Amino acid sequence: MKNLKLASRETHERTAVTVAGIEVGRNFAVIAGPCSVESEEQVLETARAVKAAGANMFRGGAFKPRTSPYAFQGLGMRGLRILAKARQETGLPIVTEVIDPRDVCWVAEFADVLQIGTRNMQNFSLLKEVGKSNRPVLLKRGMYSTLEEWLNCAEYILSEGNPDVILCERGIRTFETYTRNTLDLSAVPAIKELTHLPIIIDPTHSTGRISLIGPMSLAAVAAGADGLIIEVHHNPSEALCDADQALTPDTFADLMSRLRTLKSFLDQQPCRGDR
Ligand code: PEP
Ligand code: MN
After folding, report:
1. Residue 273 — very low, low, confident or very high, per pLDDT cuts 50/70/90?
2. Which of 26, 71, 113, 178 allows an S-S link to 66, with CB 3.0 to 4.6 Å?
3. Measured between alpha carbons, how far is 247 from 238 in angstroms, rounded to an integer?
4. Ligand approaching nearest to the C-alpha of 141
5. Where residue 70 falls among pLDDT bands split at 50, 70, 90?
6. What are phi and psi of 94, to 5 degrees?
7. Is 35 in the pocket of ligand 1 (CB under 6 A)?
8. Is residue 118 lining ligand 1, measured as CB closer than 6 Å?
9. Ligand 1 closest atom vs CA 36
């Protein structure tokens, strides 16, 4: 891809992005937590559960980009304070979304990783702003975007001086309606051919179906993904956002144990090539 200077695989060795001691790209990252921060009790209970199950980062949105203006928009600053408590109590680094360039500076004070959501992938002023911050960025693929458009967005962040970009495939829009989006799992090996940046998979937003999250997580590991981001809620039926796709802590723990089994099996196999 000729426009890529800093993101290109041709000119750069494989990058690992370090988040609180976890080298994403070398260590498998499992980011888990609710779609949105709703209350201190909800966040702390879910954070304790995902930590016990083996997650190494915690997610939760304090700013929610919602399709409807009448839907829950997140707790904002109050939500960030709750996330800080979860980090203090569990030690898990926090991944949280930023949706407005004016907020980047102070959201970065609470977040260990700044998430750019699918709807903002090509919000260039937001990309430039996170490119100036000293926090790693989780850049989700735009739901209508090609790999080339996505990597050019990573290039925006890198070219502002921030080298720490983690890509996240979260499904794209196709004619299929059974699933919320269509998970493009081929993005994993394709991205590894094109760029040195790590790539993780979001099986939650790509499928929108609890029954498909486990199989797609396992498939992501087999495809060589560097991690997963999975929504977990201590009481999914009461979630204010994305209730239909959140795993319970028990289901998540069960999935984690299957992931560990698969990972250790794959790690024992001699691997030719890049994986
Ligand atoms: C989310 O992670 O909760 C989210 C809104 O994701 P996406 O931007 O992929 O829809
Ligand atoms: Mn969500």
Report:
1. low
2. 71
3. 12
4. 1
5. very high
6. -105, 130
7. yes
8. yes
9. 3
Q: Is the pLDDT of residue 272 over 80?
A: no
Nearest CA to ligand 1 atom 8: 117
Contact 74, 64 (CB under 8 A): yes
Q: Provide the residue type at 142 as one letter.
A: G
CB of 73 closer than 6 angstroms to any ligand 1 atom: no
- Mention the CATH class of domain 21-262: alpha beta
Rounded to 5 degrees, what are φ and ψ at 97? Answer: -85, 145
**Residue 59 alpha carbon, nearest atom of ligand 1:** 2
| pLDDT value, residue 2 | 80
Instruction: Tell me how crowded residue 125 is: count the other CB atoms within 10 A of its CB.
Output: 12
**Is the confidence at residue 213, as pLDDT, over 70?**
yes
- Record the tokens describing residue 99, joined without a space: 């949706």
> How far apart are the CA of 59 and the centre of ligand 2, in A?
10
46 C-alpha vs ligand 1 centroid, how far in Å?
Answer: 18
Q: For 13-63, give the DSSP string.
A: PPP-EEETTEEETTBPEEEEE-SB---HHHHHHHHHHHHHHT-SEEE-BSS
Cα–Cα distance, 92 to 47 (Å, whole number): 8
Cβ-count burial of 128 within 10 angstroms (0-12 exposed, 13-18 middle, 19+ buried)? middle
Q: Does the structure show a pLDDT above 60 at 248?
A: yes
Which atom of ligand 1 has the smallest separation from the CA of 61? 3
